[in-house]
Amino acid sequence: MNRTKRTAGFTLIEVMMGMSVMVVGALGIMAMQQAAMTGNMNARQVTTATQSTELWLERVRRDSLAWNTADAATGLGSTFYLRNAPLPGGPSVWFTPAGGLPGESSAFDYFGMEVPLAQGRYCTQMQLTWIDPGRLMRVDLRTWWHRRGDGTATADATLFPNCGSGAEAAVTTELNASPSRLHAVYASTLVRWQRLPQ
């Protein structure tokens, strides 16, 4: 008795269909990986900028402890950063804080460490507005950084070099542009005159 066995196998079409399913699945996983990496990078940047802004909020609160005389001009002269307040009724403008304690900088690197202005990747700026002249002031802070890439491109450093010191109005214009080449984190606080005990 002669029996012929039929050998089972995959046809070329079945193999190609299986490979197509695998390729589509792999592309989906790679796209998810790319999206996760981008999200992680953006989250890290926002966290670093937020920490830098919070650091400056604490510095401003510390600085306000030296504002202890009723005369705004005299009292603010003993502060590091609040002395940049406009005259009551004058316009409020953004400025890059400088002249504080040694080692204090308004520029930060990618890891949130303070660096000289020329090396900054995250830059903090300040705006002071009188609420009650001579007694109560609003302090607005913003920490901005370049939107493009990871900052290794030369163009990132040359858009606003030196952390925008002297170009605060141009930074404001760029932040308000659509689309903007910058990201920013904002925070505000109120500081008041600290009356000396009598």
Question: What's the topology here?
Answer:
Elements: H1 12-64, H2 72-77, E1 94-95, E2 107-108, E3 114-115, E4 122-132, E5 136-146, H3 154-159, H4 168-176, E6 182-192
Antiparallel strand pairs: 1-4, 2-3, 2-4, 4-5, 5-6
Explain how this protein is built:
The chain has 198 residues and is of the alpha+beta class. Helix content is 37%, strand content 20%. Strands 1, 2, 3, 4, 5 and 6 form a 6-stranded antiparallel β-sheet that branches. The chain is rod-shaped. It starts with 11 loop residues before the first helix and ends in a 6-residue tail after the last strand. 25% of the residues are buried.
Q: In short, what is this structure?
A:
With 198 residues, the chain is of the alpha+beta class. It is built from four helices and six strands; from the N terminus they run H-H-E-E-E-E-E-H-H-E. A hairpin with a 3-residue loop joins strand 4 (122-132) and strand 5.
Attribute tags:
single chain; 4 helices; alpha+beta; 198 residues; six-stranded antiparallel sheet
